[in-house]
Amino acid sequence: PAAAAGRLAAGLRDLESLRAQLKLHTLAAPIAGRVGRLLVVRGQTLTVGTPVADVVDLDEQIDVLCFVPPGLVHKLKAGQPAVSGGFDSAKGTVEAEGEVVYIADQAEPETGNFAVKARFSNKEAHLRANRVLRIRILTGPGQECLNIKEPAVQEDDEQPTVVIVTDVKTGTNADGKEETTGIARRMKVVLGRRDRTLHQVEIVRVEDPEKDPAKRWTGEVKDALFVVEGGQGLQTGDAVKLEVETD
Asked: Which of 86, 111, 210, 232 has its CA 20 to 30 A from that of 97?
């Protein structure tokens, strides 16, 4: 019995040793996911630490790495909200929401740009790995401002211009119908921020190019009536008929 017990103990030690050796020859992924590209072929001799395959887990979230010029990186902070997709994304594209999680302290030596990483929820967007993607980051909180549709601003000249309507009057036309008319006045405009999604631009202030101070427009920009359609050919002094947009 003692000899049998000794042989059993030795056999168990051999079994543990074989299991340990088998473990050294077993591949295990550090995360759960889907097997992607295989990096080796059958029969290849591998050294310790050689990558064998890509295992990708993108069901819950995905990280997007981008490189930001030094002139813009100071506007970014960890925790700022981000959205996947650019302004030119196809209609109906599902956008993923996320936030900035990393901003490099050191620029890339080759380009001078800074690495920035944003993490997105991938439950609905189903973004793929190793693809090129545009993202949008909200660098500041939204605030109320005066804005106008981009097509209403004429930017062909050295300084952009818009058309406002003054001397607004409501009367009856030749057909007996009530109509509202006014006089066009082309104004120089100072623009602010742009919303590429809504295609709107902020109006900081307007400047009347009229040289005679007595004839210069002195109204408040917040009360001005802007021409948003059909104003490209209008000049100061042209008569216009106002049409109210209805939903």
From this structure: 111
Query: Encoding tokens for residue 79?
Result: 């925790």
The tens digit of pLDDT for each residue in 51-76 reads 899 888 888 899 999 999 998 899 89
- Alpha carbon distance 67, 63 (integer Å): 13
Beta bridge partners of 147: 202
CA triple 51-54-57, angle to 5 deg: 140
Q: Per residue in 202-242, pLDDT tens? A: 999 999 999 999 999 988 988 899 998 888 888 999 998 88
- The single-letter code of the amino acid at 97 is E
Domains and CATH numbers, the chain: 61-137 (2.40.30.170), 147-242 (no CATH)
Which has the closest alpha carbon to 207: 245, 158, 244?
A: 158
| C-beta of residue 197 within 8 angstroms of C-beta of residue 146 | no
Token digits of residue 158? 């050295």
C-alpha angle with apex 205: 204 to 207, nearest 5 degrees? 150
